[in-house]
Amino acid sequence: xxxxxxxxxxxxxxxxxxxxxxxxxxxxxxxxxxxxxxxxxxxxxxxxxxxxxxxxxxxxxxxxxxxxxxxxxxxxxxxxxxxxxxxxxxxxxxxxxxxxxxxxxxxxxxxxxxxxxxxxxxxxxxxxxxxxxxxxxxxxxxxxxxxxxxxxxxxxxxxxxxxxxxxxx
Length: 169
What we know:
The protein is mostly beta strands.
C-alpha cells in the first residue's frame, strides 16, 4: 500500500469526527466576514510551514515547504492532510483532525490530533501519532495556523510553527 493511499485513508477516517461543542460565535452569521466554518464546507491549501526551533544550534531547516489541504467540514472541526520537507531535511506526510471549540472573532483555539512520518528519530521515520495545540487566525480568504511542537525525549526538538492557509473553495 503506497503512502499516498495511506494518507487518503487516514484523512477519510478523521473526516468522520463530530463537533461536540456548541459555543456561540461572536460575529454575525449573515455578515460577509462571518466565520467561514459556519457556512458549511470550505477548502484551504497551504505551501507547507515555517518553524522556529528552540534549539538554535542544531541546524534545523526552518522553511518547511510542501503542499497541504484543510477542509472545514463542521463548524469547529477540520480535516488536515499534506506533506512538507521537515526540519531534518526529509519528506514528511501528515493527516489529522483539528478541533477548535473556542473562538473570538477571527481567532480559533483548540488542538489537532494527527499522524506524521519522515522523522528518523521517531519510529525510524515511520508513522507516529501526536496531539498539538492549534490556533488559527483567518478571514474569508486568508489565514494562519500556529502550533507548538514540544520537546520529546531526545527524539524531537521543540519549535513554534506557522502555516499560511488560502481558501480556494
